Amino acid sequence: MNICIIGAGYVGLVTGACFADLGNKVVCVDNDKKKIEMLRKLKMPFYEEGMDEMIKKNVLAGRLFFTDSIKDAVKKSVIIFICVGTPPKPGGGADLSYVENVAVEIAKNMFSYRLIVEKSTVPVETGKWIEHTIKLNNKKKIKFDVASNPEFLKEGSAIQDFMRPDRVVVGVETKKARDLLLELYKPINSEIVVTDIKSAELIKHASNSFLATKISFINSIANICEKIGANVTKVSYGLGLDHRIGRDFLKSGIGYGGFCFPKDLDAFIYISDKLGYDFSILKAVRKVNESQKEIFLKKIEKELWIIKDKTIGILGLSFKPNTDDMRYAPSIDIINSLTQNGAKVKVYDPQAMEKAQEILKGIRFCKDPYEAAKDSDALIILTEWHEFEVIELSRIKKLLKNPLIIDGRNMFEPERMRKAGIRYVSVGR
Ligand code: NAD
Question: Of 10, 355, 386, 412, which shows the fewest CB atoms inside 10 Å?
């Protein structure tokens, strides 16, 4: 099939590359000309395992193209995916201006039937607004359909999540739209849930909110564990073995971040308020997540007493491992608080340092974990990269001014640290 993907970001690029890999002809459009230039030179604008190879393979096979012209791409493609950003607005709602701009451009450049699919995470009823916008700008009265096909991929395992999803959700209002999307997703061997557009939009809201709730729930349990001397890792294991609950997303730490959970939760709370429903569970989930960072900062203070002039090594910056994405990473607030209190901060992350340099100022970027540890009063873990799991603890101990590790991701067994002669502070244990 001929497909167009508008917005070559984390979601758009993965979607485009995967659909091309499944044998479709895909044009990825982005209005960031620099990004398009990079992609044409087969350089990746972000880190995602396996993307490099998949993009190269499909470009060379003549199935994947990049352009900054929506006009050209819309002309050639029957199915058009909208994958642009939907960032948060100050009041908590989603900024849908990128989606609207794209809808206008599509409408102006359609010359025969088109299926316009919203893949960006959008508030319920956005489908209706896209349809309205296209109708307003579709002077030639070309036939079109709008559909919702929310994306559930996770950065760090995006290709696998796209190719082998738990489910594909397709929100459609016509048979033609349904048939086109079922045909496109035929090679993907997962259950396809076909619904109306609003229900599809709500499935995405509900999924992200539920996952965020699991994280805040286990973080609350971790806080209770600390108060009574229990071990949250054990509690989580015992809890998660119940198949009605499940083990995923029950890892305590410094809270969730990234481009999805914080903004999607804000947007869902905002929409619910607008609809006259007080979604109090989600408000509590957000509050717990925010306080988790403050609790962690208090732990650092408890260990170091005075933060001013202390040297603090940080391992991990990205909001989770296996990505260079720094958007809404908990590390930002934690590091900013430490530097504002006068600490000298040295950081290391396997992939996110380039992106972090644009956001975090007044800190030193190190070449490896050992440089971050050298002469530091404490070493703090903020992202659970595998590289840190296999770190040489004896070397770290020698390098630290004070053998203290404060782990916001519970990467190590406390017993292992005790044996290594390192004071180890983690979350809920
Ligand atoms: P992103 O910021 O990485 O990518 C968005 C891209 O859209 C950018 O490259 C931007 O230049 C481009 N763009 C903006 N306006 C444009 C226009 N008018 N024409 C062409 N291109 C335009 O964002 P992302 O992380 O890929 O997220 C996109 C959407 O998918 C969001 O709604 C997000 O919530 C959702 N989502 C993200 C993830 C994730 O893990 N990142 C997962 C599922 C869903």
Answer: 386
pLDDT tens-place string over residues 161-204: 999 999 999 999 999 999 999 999 999 999 999 999 999 999 99
Which residue in the block uniquely carries the two structure tokens 């490896």? 368
85 touches ligand 1 (CB under 6 Å): yes
337 class by beta-carbon count within 10 Å (0-12 exposed, 13-18 middle, 19+ buried): middle
Domains and CATH numbers, the chain: 2-195 (3.40.50.720), 229-425 (3.40.50.720)
Index of the ligand 1 atom closest to the CA of residue 325: 41
* CB 121 near ligand 1, within 6 Å: yes
Q: Which two tokens stand for residue 353?
A: 């340092």
The closest residue, in CA terms, to atom 3 on ligand 1 is: 9
In whole angstroms, how far apart are CA 182 and each of 80, 113, 176, 179, 270? 15, 17, 10, 5, 33
Q: Burial, 72: exposed, middle or buried (Cβ in 10 Å; 0-12, 13-18, 19+)? A: middle
3-state secondary structure of 173: coil
C-alpha of residue 83 to centroid of ligand 1, in Å = 5
Degrees (nearest 5) of the Cα angle 229, 408, 14? 135
- Give catalytic residue positions: 260
Torsion of CA 190, 195, 201, 205, to 10 degrees: -60
Candidate from 259, 320, 322 with most ligand 1 atoms within 8 A of CB, to mutate: 259
Mutate which of 84, 211, 263 for ligand 1? The one with the most ligand atoms within 8 Å of its CB, which is 84
Q: Is the pLDDT of residue 92 over 90?
A: no
Structure tokens belonging to residue 314: 């940080």
Q: Name the 3-class secondary structure at 196.
A: coil
Q: What is the edge-to-edge ordering of all strands in the sheet holding 79-82? A: 64-67, 25-29, 2-6, 79-82, 114-118, 144-148, 167-171, 191-195
Atom of ligand 1 nearest to the CA of 105: 18
* Residue pointed to by tokens 């557009």: 197
Nearest CA to ligand 1 atom 12: 7
Is the entire prediction scored with pTM above 0.70? yes
The residue nearest atom 38 of ligand 1, judged by CA position, is 11
Range 53-75 average pLDDT? 96
